Amino acid sequence: MAGFFKKIFSFGKKEVVEERVDETAPLPPIKWEALDALKPAAEQVVPEFLKRDEPQPEAETTPTVEPEVIPAPEPAPVEEPVPEPAPSIPAEPEIQPEPAPVEEPQPVEPEVPAPEVPAKEPTPEEVPAAPAAPEPVPAPEPEEIPGPERPEVVPQPEKQPEPAPVEVPAPPVEAPPARPEPEIPPAEIRAPIRQPPPVETQPVLAEIAPEPQAAPTPHPPLDGEGRREAAGWGDSTGASHPHPRAALGTSPIEGEIKPAPEAPPVDIPAPIRQPSPVESQPVIAEIAPEPQAIPQPAPKPVPAPGKVTVTKKVEQKAEPQKAPEPAPRRSWFQRMKDGLARSSKELTGNIAGVFTKRKLDEETLQDLEDVLIRADLGMETALRVTDALAASRYGKDVSDTEVRAIMAAEVEKVLTHVAMPLELDLSHKPHVILVVGVNGTGKTTTIGKLAAKLTDGGLSVMLAAGDTFRAAAIEQLKIWGERTKSPVIASKIGADAAGLAYDAFEKAREAGSDVLIIDTAGRLQNKTELMAELEKIVRVLGKLDPEAPHTVLQTVDATTGQNALNQVEIFRNVAGVNGLVMTKLDGTARGGILVAIAAKHKLPVYFIGVGEQVDDLEPFSASEFARAIAGVA
Ligand SMILES: Nc1nc2c(ncn2[C@@H]2O[C@H](COP(=O)(O)OP(=O)(O)OP(=O)(O)O)[C@@H](O)[C@H]2O)c(=O)[nH]1
């Protein structure tokens, strides 16, 4: 068979050049009888395909497909010149028998001969015969051939035509486009596609169809947008489509969609919004079937993979995850221990470094003293620890565990005297608590935490925004007042703090409040002004109650280290501080400063803060603090 075809092709090529001139002439009537007689010449008919390219009538008949096929095989046999195609013309009768061969072999070759025969020979007259032949063939051949042949044939002619046949390739190329044109309807569909109605889904197919040469491959032309459009349609028609969401879930489609980004789909977005993610999937299913519906139905449903929905699914997953977020609350001791972890870790680590396989001697004791001082525990406490250790373990092997235990015991002894509970003398109405301290040490926050404790204990509390220099401080106190349901007395920014304190005292008394907590500014930058202001507040309050303020609390920021010692010294002298609140013990390695302050000033430490939350303020416990900082369970 291959040899047979080659000959035909060779003829066709040569003739092509000649025939083109003839084709322009009108086509004479076909003589079927004569054609039968000419059967042997069928091979020579080859030249026709060339003519067919130009002749319009052929396009209608199925034979058009055949002529197209011809060009593809042509390349090889250019050598044999067949000047006289005339006899071959009668080949038409052969064309009918061709159907059978065409079906058998997938290769287009068998089909090629049939069309060729009629085309070339009939310079003018015979040419018409070619179109006539196709008419009988139409129904059977087209169905079988179309699916497989189209994709194969089209690409071949274009690629194979290498050098000489340059002329030939041109015609075949033209032939293929002619076919799609009849299908043009799809192009028309695009316009409707932009419109939301479900009918638009068809247009999408049309777009896909053209590419179909890629037909074997899924949906190259579809874009993410295209899918959306489809999705919109799918929603409306989704019911009719059998494609389950599961099918759509496949990811493969996505890859296809990406490659073909087309402008038209952009319009589609509107419909997409309407459908929910789930709906979009059905749309995809619709798109796939359409292209297949024409040639290949079931197999392509795979397009469901186009699941642009994948992104939507992801979103759905994210939503549910957000819901569950309960936070278990740790015990106070655990929180304090965690808060002091940095201080403890550094301290115990250094101690372990000193006592690694060493006997306790003067050098070792000196090293330990240095470690304790660097931990801000203070000279006094450091000496207490080393003295206690030397008294019981000098000259002996000592482990870091034993050292930490002794240290915890000595620290506790120092703190025990300052670890006192805050006592309120409610014989005074109100009991006035003046809160002082450097800016940012936690005055306002501590006031809020304390107010919460007092109100939770059934006491009525009133708050006074004595820091009149900062609007933020006033607003912050108001927030705490709302949280604790405590009235807040405030004034304009820059107002006299002493005057505000006086007014607040009167109002608290009038209201019968149990406790009045007064916030103050902490501008150490201008010590003179600060001292004057605090002294004035104390003096004014004394006018209403000689013993007021009854409690002067100073907040000390543990992160300030040794500076805290000086701060306490200043405020104690200016405002008569009689109690401390150590704040921010969480997140600092300098918690030991609390021990140094206690040892030096011997002021009561009422509370410690280990966080910003309302319940992160707890009464100070010497034992707990000592064990926590020494790393003793
Ligand atoms: N981590 C931690 N932060 C705290 C603690 N106490 C207060 N803070 C934070 O420290 C910052 C300052 O707290 P404030 O209460 O505004 O301090 P202040 O002394 O009133 O500051 P001024 O209003 O500027 O005078 C805020 O962000 C508080 O949330 C604590 O115990 N631990």
Automatic annotation (TrEMBL):
Compartment(s) of residence: Cell inner membrane; Cell membrane; Cytoplasm
GO cellular component terms, A-Z: cytoplasm; plasma membrane
GO terms of molecular function: GTP binding; GTPase activity; signal recognition particle binding
Membrane topology reported for the UniProt record: Peripheral membrane protein
Domain of life: Bacteria
One BP term from GO: SRP-dependent cotranslational protein targeting to membrane
Catalytic reaction list: GTP + H2O = GDP + phosphate + H(+)
Keywords in alphabetical order: Cell membrane, Cytoplasm, GTP-binding, Hydrolase, Membrane, Nucleotide-binding, Receptor
InterPro entries reported for this sequence: AAA+_ATPase, P-loop_NTPase, Signal_recog_particl_SRP54_hlx, SR_rcpt_FtsY, SRP/SRP_N, SRP54_GTPase_dom, SRP54_N_sf
CDD domains hit by this protein: FtsY (cd17874)
Coiled coil: none
Limits of the SRP54-type proteins GTP-binding domain: 604-617
Function as written in the Swiss-Prot or TrEMBL entry: Involved in targeting and insertion of nascent membrane proteins into the cytoplasmic membrane. Acts as a receptor for the complex formed by the signal recognition particle (SRP) and the ribosome-nascent chain (RNC). Interaction with SRP-RNC leads to the transfer of the RNC complex to the Sec translocase for insertion into the membrane, the hydrolysis of GTP by both Ffh and FtsY, and the dissociation of the SRP-FtsY complex into the individual components.
PANTHER family found in the cross-reference section: SIGNAL RECOGNITION PARTICLE RECEPTOR SUBUNIT ALPHA
Family designation: Belongs to the GTP-binding SRP family. FtsY subfamily.
SUBUNIT field: Part of the signal recognition particle protein translocation system, which is composed of SRP and FtsY. SRP is a ribonucleoprotein composed of Ffh and a 4.5S RNA molecule.
Name of the protein described by the UniProt record: Signal recognition particle receptor FtsY
Gene behind this protein: ftsY
